[in-house]
Design brief:
single chain; alpha+beta; six-stranded antiparallel beta sheet; 2 helices
């Protein structure tokens, strides 16, 4: 009720306020819906387990230290276990020259 009184006192019509409020809500819905968009692409499968990579998350990183320059590839990987009805999300870093990987972050969701 305070907001309605404030709007009347400041000379903002209720119609303008409701239009502004609707616009803010629409922008928030759009931003929240696109922020979590994934572009998962199937990579491989083994029995009841599927492996996917998020194409939008792939990035190449060059790192220089005393041993020289290392080239890394970072990406989000999804492992889907159909038998457990679970999806595991990993943030991983691959070093193609050494054929190694490192897991940075892990998350799990039920499907």
């Amino acid at each position: 009720m305070k907001c309605l009184l404030f709007c009347r006192r400041e000379g903002i019509s209720l119609f303008r306020f409701s239009r502004l409020f609707a616009l803010v809500v629409a922008v928030m819905i759009y931003v929240c819906g696109t922020a979590s968009a994934e572009s998962m692409v199937f990579v491989d499968a083994n029995d009841q387990t599927g492996y996917y990579v998020d194409q939008d998350s792939i990035s190449k990183v060059d790192f220089t230290d005393k041993d020289g320059t290392h080239k890394f590839v970072r990406a989000r990987i999804a492992v889907i276990r159909a038998d457990l009805n679970r999806r595991y999300i990993y943030a991983m870093q691959f070093e193609p020259a050494k054929m190694t990987y490192q897991i940075f972050c892990f998350g799990s969701t039920g499907l």
